Hints:
There is one protein chain. With 220 residues, the protein is of the alpha+beta class. It has helices at residues 4-17, 34-51, 75-82, 106-109, 130-142, 170-184, 199-212, and strands at 55-57, 60-62, 72-73, 90-91, 112-115, 147-149, 160-163. Strand 1 (55-57) and strand 2 (60-62) form a beta hairpin. The chain is globular and about 60 Å long. The N and C termini lie far apart (40 Å).
Amino acid sequence: MAGDKVLEAQKWVNSTYGAVSGYVRCPENGQTGWSTMYALVIASRARWLYDNSYRLVGRYLYDPPGSTLDKEIKPGELQTIFDQLRDGDVRGHRTSRGVGQAYESNYLSGTAIEIRARAYPLGARDGLYAPELVVVRDILAELDGAVEWGGDFSVPKESHFEIALRPGHPKVKGVARKTASWNAGPGAQGAGTVDAYEAGRRAHARTFARRTAPAGAPGR
């Protein structure tokens, strides 16, 4: 579908929300499509926060001033409000040989996954909110180089995660043992379930990111 109204909406949403973290500008061509719909979703999320007087303060997103709820929403909890994973959002092994970048061939061997590939497509950067990026960095540091993130590649794909080392590598074995122990434990263990904002974890994640930055990756 194309038309003046669609073009008008595209120009408005780009000019109004272009500075919002995680916003990806849609083409101003009068054509509806995924890129336009995704821009509107991000704009809607930002508007909800504004209308409800939510504000990011340090590591927490606080509820509206004067609220009787007196609660704090941590970044991970905010994700559950706005962006729960749905069936089909996580994909791994596939048989299709159509790839846009060589690293996407790792799906064929089952050594890579993509999480919400349509929201974080090949070539797009800065799609994650700052709290989400903190958690991603914490997870990568915890996995000690056994896994790489497509957001760090020269041609990015922020939905992409892949095993970075050969089969049987000591780091791969060590991470496998570690994550197996998390699954066997009582829960709330390991990156993704603990506080990624704890000072020691933040420092370790930053150091790890600088030390392991691939050639051609953007500066951090």
